[in-house]
Amino acid sequence: MRNEGLINRYRDYMPVSDDTRIVTLSEGSTPLIPAYNLSKAIHPKLEIWLKYEGLNPTGSFKDRGMTMAITKAVEEGYKAVMCASTGNTSASAAAYAARAGIRCAVLIPEGKIALGKLSQAMIHGAKVIQIRGNFDEALTQVRKICEHNPIALVNSVNPFRIEGQKSGAFEIVDDFEGVAPDFQAMPVGNAGNISAYWKGYTEYHAAGKSKNRPVMLGFQAAGSAPIVLGHPVEQPQTFATAIRIGNPASWKTAEAARDESGGLIDMVTDDEIRAAYQKLAATEGVFCEPASASGVAGLIKLSAAGYFDDKTPAHSDKIRVTCILTGHGLKDPDSAIASAEETVTVDNDEAKILDAIGLEAVVA
Ligand code: F0G
User: Fold this and answer.
1) What pLDDT does residue 363 have?
2) Pocket test for ligand 1, best of 193, 195, 250, 328 (most atoms within 8 A of CB)
3) Rounded CA gap, 126 and 102, in Å?
C-alpha cells in the first residue's frame, strides 16, 4: 500500500480536519529492525530493535513533526516559517516549506552542523543564516523574532511538532501488534522527541491500542548534559553535534516522561557514542549519525553496570528494547570518515590489490 504519510495513517490522533490541506513527503512507517548481533553482544536477555528514522524523506525523525507543523502553518495562513537548528530541523523545515510553497529561514550555530544537513537546507532554498553562537542562543533569538513577526516557529516548542512526532510510538506498538517494548532508549537534545514518544505511548495506551507503556531511557552527550547535571550548560560540547544543546526547551516534559515511566536520563561520553556508532554500522549494517547512536551507547553503559540483570519481565524471558536511530549516517560523512579505518591507494595490479586486502587474513 502506498505510504500517504503519517497524518493520514494516524488521522484520528492528529489535529486536522477534512478541510486541512496536508503537506506530506510520505514520511513515517520507518523500519523496525531486529539487532541480533548487538543484542547478543550487549546482554544475553536483551532483544534490541532499531527504529531506523534515517529512512524518513529528509533522513531524520524531524519529518514526523515537520509534516504536522508545516501543514498547520499553511492552514493558519503563514507565508514563512523559521527555526533554530543543529541541522536536522533546518533540513526538514526547508524541504517541507519548499513543498508547501512558503518561505523558510533557518538559524544555525556557525561551523557546528554536519555537512549533509547544511547541504539540504541550502538546496531546498531556505535562507540559511549562521550565527556566532550556539543552538540555545539561536533558539532564543528565533523565538523572539517569531513573536514579533508573521513567521511561524517550527522548532519543537511548536506543539504541532510533538503531535507529529508522537506517531513514532504508534508505529512501534502497531509493529509489535498492540504491545509497547519494555524499554525504549533514545538520544536527548532539545528533549522534544522523548516527550513526543511518551505522549504517543500514553495516548495509545489510553485508547486501548497498547497493553503497556515502556520505561523511557534518555541519553545526553556528557559535554552537553544539562538534565543529568540539573542545570543549563553554557558551552555545550560533543562531536555528536545534533545534540550539542545546553538548555533544552522541553526539559520539564522530558523529566515527566522519565519519572512517569520509571526510567532515567543519563549521559554517555563521546568515546562511548563513537563506539556504539561504529558497532551499529560494522555489526548490524545500520548507518546512523553519531547522536543517534547515543541510545545504544546508553544501553551498553547500563548493561555493564548491571541495570538489566533484574529487569526480565514476567511475560517473557527476554527484555525487549527499542532504540530510536534518529538520523541517517549520510548526514555526517565527516564523522564517518574520521571514525573508520583509512582507505588505501595502490597501483591497479592484482598482486598489489590482494596484498592490500590481506587476503590470507580475510579468508583464513
Ligand atoms: N538525534 C538527532 C539526529 C537530532 O537531530 C536531534 C535533535 C536529536 C537526536 C535530539 O532530539 O532535540 O528532540 O531531544 N536535533 C535538533 C535539530 C535540535 O535542530 O535538528 P530532541
Assistant:
1) 72
2) 193
3) 10
Predicted TM-score of the model (pTM): 0.97
Q: Helices 192-206 & 167-175, crossing angle to 10 degrees?
A: 50
Residue 105's pLDDT is 98
Shortest-distance atom of ligand 1 to CA 327: 3
Q: What distance in angstroms lies between residue 180's CA and the mean position of ligand 1's atoms?
A: 23
Q: For a substitution probing ligand 1, which of 50, 55, 56, 62 has the most ligand atoms within 8 Å of its CB?
A: 62
What separation in angstroms does the CA of 28 have from each of 47, 165, 172, 205? 23, 9, 11, 20
Please, which residues have CB within 8 angstroms of residue 341's CB and are 6 or more apart in sequence? none
pLDDT, averaged in runs of 10, over the chain (364 residues) = 96 98 98 98 97 98 98 98 98 98 97 96 98 97 98 98 98 98 98 98 98 98 98 97 98 98 98 98 98 98 97 94 98 97 96 89 68
Q: Report the separation in Å between the CA atom of 116 and the middle of ligand 1, taken as the mean of its atom positions.
A: 15
Is the C-beta atom of 120 inside 6 A of ligand 1?
no
pLDDT at residue 364, as a whole number: 66
For residue 291, give the ligand 1 atom closest to its CA. Answer: 1
Nearest atom within ligand 1 for CA of residue 292: 1
CB proximity list for 120: less than 8 A, separation 6 or greater: 58, 59, 90, 91, 94, 95
The pLDDT, as a whole number, for residue 44 is: 94
CB 326 less than 6 A from any atom of ligand 1: yes
